[in-house]
Amino acid sequence: MSSPWWDRTVHADRAPRLRARNAMRAALRAWFGAAGFTETECRALVQSPGNETHLHPLSTTLHGVDGTPQGTAFLHTSPEFAMKKLIAAGEDRLFEFARVWRDREAGALHAREFTMLEWYRTHASLEALMADAATIVAVAARAAGSTVLSHRGQTCDPFATPERLTVTQAFAIHAGVELDATLCPDGTPRADALRAQARATGVSCRDDDSWSDVFSRILVSRVEPALGKGRLTILHDYPAPEAALARRRPDDPRFALRFELYACGVELANCFDELTDPAEQRARFEADMDLKAQLYGYRVPLDEDLLAALPAMPPTVGGALGFDRLVLLVLGAPSIADVTWTP
What we know:
Strand content: 15-25%
Mean pLDDT: 96
CATH class of the domain at 8-159 and 256-339: Alpha Beta
Helix content: 25-40%
Radius of gyration: 20 Å
CATH topology of the domain at 8-159 and 256-339: BirA Bifunctional Protein, domain 2
CATH architecture of the domain at 8-159 and 256-339: 2-Layer Sandwich
């Protein structure tokens, strides 16, 4: 913009999108309320911000009233840990429009500070969560009076029945990669096998790239751009190395009970059948922190309260949706900055 966002003329141009954003949020709050969900307001300043390898939290030093340093705290990268503790405490359906922070993120679809819509259902199936995710998109579109999602020349009908693909199917169709052949029966990844397939299909990779590195490169360059065209895509059954906080499939440990929702080649939501085994979760967290230390030279604390709370959680499914991205797609805006009140 040649003038600042707070210039009256610039704001007058931006205001209709911002009002539409508010209408979408109000409609979604009403939908969640009618479905029996309780809205939460979790603390953003935490002792453990999330333990994923490639997420970078913002931190600050806390001080006592006398100015004495009292340690480091972080702005959360998701309200997930706090909401799971509330599930352990007895809540059964929760949602929140959470402000979250992730450093090293910028661009049309990324921002250091953004709004995440996160929701959880106890004693529910991943199928129920898939229905929620599709309904959320439809409710937002209807509230804004939109009949199509659009981004960079691609369009998507928010009311059509979503396409469903396993990750294995999507890699075979859109990248010519047989993902099954790169996983051992117990889910252990074979990086050499995936590197060979990637190179054979024209995706470059280094000899020291991990399985997850190559997986991400193929996903971003070949698979994601083909998803959510014409209608939403639900990409499900993620390989075990990409399980994050999801349970593995009991019938096939090579894959996890996780799905992502796509529209116009853009990832909108990341959803899990939640892992509640504290020993397995601790092992995953520690492995992720070891890799973070190796790649980035630092680690963040584990949330010991979360690990203590997991055994008290009933079976739970949960999702996290980038609300700014949803608004962007519903309104056909070029970037998140165009649908943010104070960019």
